[in-house]
Each structure stands twice: as structure tokens, then as C-alpha cells.
Amino acid sequence: MQDDIITNGLDYRKFDEKLILLCLFDAMDLPLSYNQIMLYATDETRLELFLIQQNLNEMTQSGYIDKFHSNNDIRYMITEEGANALEYFSKHIPKDARDRIDQFVTDNRKEIKKDYNVIASHAFDYTYNEYQIRCGVYEDESTLMEVTLYVVSKEQAQFICDNWKGNVQYLYANMLNLLTTDPGSVK
């Protein structure tokens, strides 16, 4: 009965899967996209793939995870309430499941963090009646470069975002080179 109260009336049959997902969010300590969650789930035999989206929706509604848009993707991360529930019920997560989560984090954190450190998004700005594009490159907690620009069409905005994400190393290096070169030496 105590479990039912703490889990906000969530279906107890799916409770183990939810704890494993909360443990994954907590261990990764980065927002995860649905595809990144599925990458873990395909390696994790205890998770039922068809229930993952339902579990994510229920945990979002109950306040255990946040769902937000970032880098033209939907991402999920654990909330304080989710961390408290995880702490309270952590004894219910088998050691082998924790070990698999730790291994997944070790194997994938760098790649997931790399994906999260490049941002390109666009939104319609009613003030200027154009699409605002924000592109950025970040390392750990530092901003390496941010660019904001406006274009007239959604197609242009999407093209620029895709181009930024696909060529960020080249664009960043060339922009930095242009900005640090003496204008008198460029002909």
C-alpha cells in the first residue's frame, strides 16, 4: 500500500521498468532523447519496448521526469521528485540491472554528451515576422559559440539548423579562424 501511495497510483506491474528508467536518467545525468532511451532498452532484456513510451508519459504526468524540446528533439530528464522516489525505492533495483545501467553510461555518455553539446533550433518570432535560428556549441558548462540569425522561411531555418548540426566542426573552426584573422591580411 505504501508503494501505491508513493508511486502516485501508477500501475505496479510497470513499476520495475519505471525504476530502471529513473535509474538510467539519474546515472546518465544528462537529458536523454527517446532514441537514446531505446538504445539502452534494446540492450536491456527486462524492459518491454512497447511500454517505454507509456511509462515515459506516465512518469511525466506524475512529475518524476520532465519532458522538453531541445535541439529539435524531445528529451527527458529526472526531476527532484523522481530522484526522491528512486532513492526511496532503490533497493528494489537488482544489482545486475544497476551494473548494466552503469556499463551503458560508461559506453555511451561521451557520445550522448557530444550530441547534446551541439544545438540548432528555430522558432517563429512574431516581433520580426521571421524565423529566429539559434545555433550553439558548448563544452561542459561553457559556451564556445552561439549564433542567432533571422530568415524569412521555415525551410531556410530548417536547412540552416541541419547544416549547423551536420557540419559544426567545420563551421566552428572556419568562423573562429575568420574572426581571429587580421582583416588587413585577408585579400
Explained architecture:
There is one protein chain. This protein has 187 residues and is α+β, with helices and mostly antiparallel strands. It folds into two domains: 2-116, Winged helix-like DNA-binding domain superfamily/Winged helix DNA-binding domain (Arc Repressor Mutant, subunit A, Orthogonal Bundle); 118-185, no CATH class. The protein has seven helices and six strands; from the N terminus they run H-H-E-H-H-E-E-H-H-E-E-E-H. The strands form two sheets. Strands 1-3-2 form a three-stranded antiparallel beta sheet. Strand 5 (130-139) and strand 6 (142-151) form a beta hairpin. The protein starts with a helix and ends in an 8-residue tail after the last helix.
- Give the end-to-end Cα distance, rounded to a whole number of Å: 76 Å
- What is the CATH third-level topology name of the largest domain? Arc Repressor Mutant, subunit A
Rg, please? 21 Å
The total of beta strands comes to 6
Largest sheet: 3 strands, antiparallel
| Strand residue content | 15-25%
> Taking all residues together, what is the mean pLDDT?
83
Q: Number of helical runs?
A: 7
- Can you write the helix and strand succession as a string? HHEHHEEHHEEEH
Low-confidence stretches: 1-13
Category by helix and strand content: alpha+beta
How many domains? The number is: 2
Which CATH-level-2 architecture of the largest domain? Orthogonal Bundle
Helical residues, percent: 40-55%
CATH top level assignment of the largest domain: Mainly Alpha
> What best-fitting shape do the alpha-carbon axes yield?
elongated
Quaternary structure state of the chains depicted: single chain
CATH superfamily of the largest domain: Winged helix-like DNA-binding domain superfamily/Winged helix DNA-binding domain
